[in-house]
Amino acid sequence: MKVGYLGPESSFTHTATRTAFPEDTLVPFHSIPACIKAVEFNEVDLGVVPIENTLEGSVNTTVDYLFHQSSIPVGAEIVLPIFQQLMVSKENKENWKEIRRILSHPQALAQSQEFINCHFPDADLEQTPSTAYAASFVAEHPTQKIAAIAPKLSAEKYDLAIVQENIQDVAINRTRFWVIGSDQVELPHIPVERQKMTLAVTMPNNMPGALHKALSAFSWREIDLSKIESRPLKTTLGEYFFLIDLVADKSPELIQFALQEIQQMGGEVKVFGNYKVHPIHGI
């Protein structure tokens, strides 16, 4: 089986994908839309894309593409602990405090803001398509006063020196990844934490108390919601859809009745998936 992921190799997405699919062929893609399109056009059987980080919240590129442009189902979720490392070429190992540019994925830069502001307040921050790309760029320009923020695997792959470890702003930093391309994806190599459902709800425009009415369909049935946020519909300013995660421990019929109640109020419901959550430990 071919599994696509947001590459390149040694990125966090690669780590999650390799752990979940150790015996399959992994195919890197340069962007989240490219990975999703590869699943749509059957270039790969499944895809793994980031959906949310503890510090930075939802990965809007993934959410918006799957809502507006795709009907690919979510079949599983992988939760990976994230540890950011500051790395330089071995030529700059002794004088790493003199670096002038720091490269990384926008999420990794945002996750390390406190460290950057404290130690490199004047450094130029440069966004890259992935953390692994930043590491490869540093390796290709060993004499420049530059550093990358990336995982340990990137330092190993590109022969870089880690000069500061675990520089993320909080100790408990995790990223959620969705496995897309099938309604149900079994990941026997990773334990199961719980069952979850993710859906998007769009209520009629200008309906008084629209969000309250939608949430009441879950509330009185005692269906536990683990997340709710709004995203622009990209139609008219001020119009949104609501991205909702719910704990799918109730009977499927009860959840379906809640969705039907929302639809009877004039709302639209798009179900991304009803899937198992798989936490990764020890990485």
From TrEMBL:
One of its GO terms (molecular function) is prephenate dehydratase activity. Pathway: Amino-acid biosynthesis; L-phenylalanine biosynthesis; phenylpyruvate from prephenate: step 1/1. It catalyses: prephenate + H(+) = 3-phenylpyruvate + CO2 + H2O. Signal peptide: none annotated. It is an enzyme of class 4 (lyase). The keyword Amino-acid biosynthesis applies. Residues 2-182 form the Prephenate dehydratase domain. The keyword 4Fe-4S does not apply. NCBIfam families: PRK11898.1 (NF008865). This is Prephenate dehydratase.
